[in-house]
Amino acid sequence: MTQTETIAYDVVVLGGGPSGENVADRTRAAGLTTAVVESELLGGECSYWACMPSKALLRPIIARADARRLPGLAQAVQGPLGTQAVLARRDEYAARWKDDGQVSWLTGTGADLHRGHGRLVGPRTVTVTAPGGTVTTLTARHAVAVCTGTRARLPDLPGLAGVAPWTSREATSAKAAPGRLIVVGGGVVATEMATVWRALGSHVTVLVRGKGLLNRMEPFAGELVADALTGAGVDLRTGTSVESVTRDNGTVAVVTSAGDRIEADEILFATGRVPRTDDLGLDTVGLEPGSWLDVDDSLRVSGTDWLYAVGDVNHRALLTHQGKYQARIAGAAIAARAAGTPLLDGPWGSHAATADHDAVPQVVFTDPEAAAVGLSLAEAERAGHRVRAVDVEFSSVAGAGLYADGYRGRARMVVDLEDEILRGVTFVGPGVGELIHSATVAVAGRVPVSRLWHAVPSYPTLSEVWLRLLEALRDN
Fold first, then answer.
1. Full-prediction pTM beyond 0.90?
2. Bound how, and how many: what does the cofactor note say (predicted)?
3. pLDDT value of position 384
């Protein structure tokens, strides 16, 4: 290794994904000199192996499903999808795995990009080891922000490395549909990728250790998605874990807890995420390598006055939009502290990530879509709130019938009976991802139920489900 120089900045950001980019954008907007350190592609997981490629893959699949529910159009879309065209569009949305555009944007903010592996070597000090071995030292006058995200967690199965399993990266960037695919897991990645590859022609088997899918949402969300997957030809097996996995002559063989042997061409493990903090030098500042980083609402790491952790790495909400939200908060907090101005870190203050606690939205882009914000009924009850769940079927909504013949979906709002606000809202059905922001506004804004009656939904749209929910609350 060759030591070159030491460069001083106001802020050093470790990780150039959406969270890191947005921290840099906010600190640069405040006039602070900022460096971003990235060892892979600038733009991170979301741009190349998660949000953008997965949704590009899913969009034509969902559009075809919607079209097939409309007489007069259904007969025009009965053939198979053009797999290569779908994959080519995916490639475009993943920028063909080149980050030139992201680099242009970042440098346009005035931030400096340092390519290489960044590592803390003490308070406010980071070394960057470039691919050629050259080491540069960066010092931070005000803050270091850890925005390194997560990577896929793989189970501890003997010989797994020799199987070359897929994770979310391989599943979203594959160049062809495997003939047979085993998906292990029942969460967002598992359900979305099962949807994708089944629609593109793969025989898909999903193995779920638990009782059902999407277990962090209301139970009916997973049930409706499971019904749709099995209806599409997916072999869904719940209460089933993997006991062993091998690969021989290109064929993957799994033995399940039920004693079944399943063969496939590829196997995807979608079994959770772990933080990318194992080789960041956390031990040099008194923190545990490989750990999630605990933060306050200004995203500052507990026990420090200079270290921030933003996005997935703090384990608050492993979602791109929440990481970007946190980045805006953290950037503003870093700038305020640097300027010596008062910190507005009380609930819903501009320097507090309050929404992380009770107003986190998420959309699962399966067919049907599942979208939720805030607390589920079970979560609200565990938190000690006195609540009531109000459910309606989308069959009662005129706009749903117009959207698609045989529209199947359900909505729930979790009503706090004491504060008379919404603690959570869940929608399941085609197109409901575009409804969730209205629910997010209601939950985050703590809008009284009595006032929601005056937010009149346009007729005939899916949003009329709000009126049906309020009527069900009133009448039952």
1. yes
2. Binds 1 FAD per subunit.
3. 97
Answer yes or no: do 115 and 249 share one domain. Answer: no
3-class secondary structure, 54: helix
Interatomic CA distance for residues 28 and 254, integer angstroms:
51
Residue 361 lies in a domain: no
Residue 92 lies in a domain: no
Q: Checking DSSP bridges between strand 266-269 and strand 180-184, what pairing results, if any?
A: parallel
Q: How far apart are the first and last CA of the chain?
A: 72
Q: Are 407 and 466 in contact (CB under 8 A)?
A: no
- Could you list the residues known to form a binding site for FAD, using ranges: 55, 118, 312
Virtual torsion, Cα 160, 162, 167, 171, nearest 10 deg: -140
In a domain, 13, yes or no: yes
- Does residue 102 have a pLDDT over 90? yes
Torsion 379-382-385-388 (CA) sign:
positive
As a whole number of angstroms, the longest Cα–Cα distance in the chain is 74
Note the pLDDT of residue 1. Answer: 58
- Beta-strand relationship, 369-374 and 125-129: unpaired
Residues 252 and 318 in one domain: no
Binding residues for NAD(+): 185-192, 272
Q: Which amino acid, one-letter code, is at 123?
A: P
Q: Are 302 and 205 contained in the same domain?
A: no
Buried/exposed 36-50: b ≥16 CB within 10 Å, e otherwise? bbbbbbbbbbbbbbb
Looking only at the bridges linking them, the beta strands covering 242-248 and 251-256 are antiparallel
Are 146 and 283 contained in the same domain? yes
310, 329, 355 — which closes off a domain?
355
CA distance 331 to 432: 32
> Reduced to 3 states, what is the DSSP secondary structure of residue 226?
helix
The Cα–Cα gap between 57 and 200 comes to: 9
* pLDDT tens digits for range 340-367: 999 999 999 999 999 999 999 999 999 9
Query: What is the residue whose two structure tokens read 């980083």?
Result: 293
Ramachandran area for residue 315 (φ above 0: left; ψ -120 to 50: alpha; else beta): left
User: Residue 341, class by beta-carbon neighbours within 10 Å (0-12 exposed, 13-18 middle, 19+ buried)?
Assistant: exposed
| Beta carbons within 10 angstroms of residue 209's beta carbon | 15
Q: Are residues 31 and 176 in the same domain?
A: no
pLDDT grade, residue 476 (50/70/90)?
confident
Q: Which residues contact 116 (CB under 8 A, 6 or more apart)?
A: 37, 39, 128, 129, 130, 131, 134, 136
Binding residues: 55, 118, 185-192, 272, 312
d(C-alpha 36, C-alpha 439), whole Å: 35
Mean pLDDT score, 440-468: 98
